[in-house]
Input
Amino acid sequence: MATVGYAVAALGLLGGAAAAQQRSNSADVVSITRNTSNAQERFRALPGGRFEWTATSLFSLVWQAYQRFDFDEREITGAPAWMRDERYDLIVQLDGALPPPGADEFPLALLERFRAILEDRFRVRTHWEQRDGPIYLLTLARPGTTGPGLRPVQADCSLAVSKRMMDQTAGPNTASKPECTFVPTSTHGELQGNAVTIEMVARMLGGEDLHRPVVNRTGLAGRFDLDLHYQPEGFAGIGIRPPANDGPSIFTAVQEQLGLKLTASRGPIDVQVIDHAERPTEN
Output
């Protein structure tokens, strides 16, 4: 499951060691260097509108920059192999103030700046399609009631996304609970949330363990604190099994602990198609 990130790529030297710098059409300053090391992918957001990525791929950047909402787990198809394999170090210095989040708390204006750089420097072109595929429907297990692991709360989340983004500069969050998001846990099979919406829960479940879209049909509004303990399914298709714990299956846990129900179904799935992309050219 990918964590919430905000990324962009831009001009670079193909196979070069020295970084190039140039302003994009939006006047944001961009620097990119080819990374051929085995460094782990990393992202940092710094004060003053500065964003840094280490050992990232263009595929990762597209995944992040074209998010439409929090936890936008969607299929991306049509990407050539180099978009996943080649790694870059990138720096973006925004021109002017950091764009504020929208009324729905999501920083769409910021991501649009990142998309413009991707489209300018990597010539990225994409479109969206709807395809029929397997999904899960998330409904109430019993009308009018939820389980003990899903508790309604009152919370002002108007600045939560921007705050989370900028807090990444200070290292791990040491507070007992971050605001309006999911709480990092050390054990796979534990899902905790602070003032999250059911839409966020559906997206997290779909990407965390079910590996298919989960469509929210609960009708539940507002925000909730959430605690879920289950036995993770893992990736049996490629032989990866997580350590066993004492939890029930995710389907049983969702019903008994959250008072919700997951039902297998089929329906339209949003797919992002990569129509075109180019390696960055030398400045």
Summary: The longest strand covers residues 260-276.
